[in-house]
Amino acid sequence: MKFAHIADVHLGAWREPRLQELNLETFRKAIAMCIDEKVAFVIIAGDLFDVAMPSVEILKEAVSELKRLKDCNIECYVIAGSHD
Length: 84
Prior knowledge:
Strand order of the largest sheet: 1-2-3
Order of helices and strands: EHEHE
Strand content: 15-25%
Low-confidence stretches: none
Mean pLDDT: 93
Distance between the termini: 29 Å
Number of strands: 3
Largest sheet: 3 strands, parallel
Number of helices: 2
Radius of gyration: 12 Å
């Protein structure tokens, strides 16, 4: 059984728009790899977001990517981190 472990994504951490987009792009690529590799489940072990109340735009991006996992029948378990 294959699974993926992701941690310390810190979505929304960057004020610089280009860095924020690179951060999102990296998360998108990680999710795409999970789908391509047909993992059984994904564990996001803390700090998916950089703050407890991320912006609506960051939330939309995260939900969109997590929905891609759901649409591929890949379970996702998220553990809150110190920044979430």
